[in-house]
Amino acid sequence: MDWAGFRFQDPAWLWLALTAPLVLAVVLLRERSGRAVAFPGAARLHRLPTSWRVRLRHMPMALAALGLVAGAAALARPQHGSLRESVTTRGVDVVVALDVSGSMAAQDFQPRNRLEVAKEVVAEFVRRRASDRVGLIVFAGRSLTKSPPTTDTAVLLRQLDDVRLQMLPDGTAIGSGLATALTRLRRSEAKSRVIVLVTDGANNAGEIDPATATDMARAMEVRVYTVGVGRGGQVPMPVQVRDPFTGQTVERTVTTEVQIDEKLLERIAERTGGEFFRATDPESLRQIFARIDELEKSEIEHQAFRRYRDLYPPVLLAAAALFAAAALVWAIGLRVVPA
User: Fold this and answer.
1) pTM of the predicted model, to two decimals?
2) What is the mean pLDDT of each run of 10 residues along the chain (339 residues)?
3) Dihedral through CA 32, CA 34, CA 36, CA 38, nearest 10?
4) Measuring CA to CA, how many Å separate 323 from each of 59, 188, 207, 242, 275?
5) In the chain, where are the structural domains located?
6) I need a labelling partner for 296 at 20 to 30 A (CA). Which of 39, 61, 161, 318 fits?
7) Angle between helices 174-185 and 210-219 in degrees, nearest 10
8) Which of 291, 334, 338 has the alpha carbon at shortest distance from 125?
9) Element of type H or E holding 191
């Protein structure tokens, strides 16, 4: 029997408390049965002053009944427990490797470009992984660590917000981005280690070949989920051009060819035990990250226990005091007298 931390350790004793009203009921019934004989002039007796002894004749029995109730409660061992909780997380260390090459400026994810949509979706993903460590790598012509795996979501989101186009030499160094992400997981002791590689192009830069980086990931038992972003083919792309009349640099939107190396991304995912996904619009990109979130769930062990403190000593003392009071009242003459 437990109510928000309060319980009786031996609640069966509470049945004893029910005998108290039964005893009082028997006494009252016996008293009433003793008044069955009527005699002339009884009405005048009711107008006579009532002795205080008569008025308090039931006090000893009432005190004894209350003592019985308190005694039953004390024997039931009332206790109060303070709740203590222990949470153990068998988490997942995740590193997001985000492509920031020039092609991520493509505007086929209207009303924003690919990079802005990818940043927003990654931010949503980070907020859902509160119990895991998440890191961030960006890559273009070379790679850069923006944040090692951390549980400090606020810091990570600030680093993600700082990501922009043209922050690195242009190009798409998929192998280098993957290798840098692996170095962030080298000392990880997490049960599961994962890289989410987000890119919209084909490897054309960097000092590390994607196949070599894939073999490294496989040796380290790191799963790589690859996400190809964009429709591919002819896409609108903003470019900086010089106006021949004014000599000023202006931004214009042109249609250009952007190809995604799906076979490479599929090989990376297959060889490391991950999956390849293709996002052709913002909604599909969100669904992909939601799917990855489901595939890489953390295991959280939650333990709760209570430490109980006995409350029966004052209750037992009250029961003893009530019985003593009943005996004292009885001894000095406040007992049931004939009416």
Assistant:
1) 0.63
2) 69 80 73 56 50 62 80 81 60 93 89 92 93 94 95 94 94 96 91 93 92 96 95 81 75 82 96 95 94 79 65 83 79 53
3) -120
4) 11, 68, 92, 104, 77
5) 88-301
6) 161
7) 20
8) 291
9) none
